[in-house]
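Input chain follows. Return structure tokens only.
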Amino acid sequence: MSFKFDSMMTILNKVDGGEKATVQSLREELGVSERTVHRYLETLQSSGYPLYFDRQRERYVFPEGYALKKPGLTFEESLALALAKKMVGVLGEDLGKHLDRIRQKMAARPMAVTPKIFVREDGRVKGDDHLEVLNRAALNFQRVELTYQALSSRKKTKRRVDPDYIFYQEGLWYLRGYCALREDFRTFALDQILSLKLLDDYFVPKRRPEEEELMASFGSFLDGEAVEVVLRFDPEIKGYIQRKKWHPSQQEKELSGGRLEARFRVNGLEGIRRWVYRWLPQVEVIAPAELREKMKEDLRRRWRNIG
């Protein structure tokens, strides 16, 4: 574990514990310069930790209600809570609120519960040996080394990943984390991880709004810039589109002739492009132009293969 990481963890624990934490006191305890202390504080703040200097108390603090500590739950208990919240939510908002209150009472403070497992749909959870290891790594900010086989190319690569969170989508488990090889966040299907090893190496988390990121994705595809997609469906399949909420951003408008216009705001086009293919030939892509052209190209290539 690096001295820099140890120093920042010391700062976080002191602030979280309500101890005296000033630039001067931290400089003396850590044995570093004031400039270094300021750099540590800036790194923590830019990583998403909401610490600030309270002039009345004359020390660095977290906002009221925020805490680093988490309830002492096992992996199985954390998973059960994640599943329960999703399933109870289907039965009504009030039941979901009651479950949230239970989660809060189990923690020392309301903000202590920071799940690292997200379930986006009901379904049968398949057991996987990687789940427990990756959940522990995400909670402890511990780096992992994995061998990953891409599903399309079958190419195998060794990656060092900072696990952020795990989510379940369309019958499969996925890991979201920062990949050193790609120098960016990536999504890894757990069934494509051939080997996994916990490293004696820790990282300062690059805090991201997990729930917001998942809400903006379409399926398991999380990468890409936010884009608005406009589709028009023929009357024959309109009922299939309207019968459920395919995406949180979904907006619908009835058109003349019985057609339906649906709008979505998603991160990237890959996920929604694959979904649109389900409804051909009774769907028309209105926007963006990039999606229209990509689908035209795909269909031309497919037609050549058939011919």
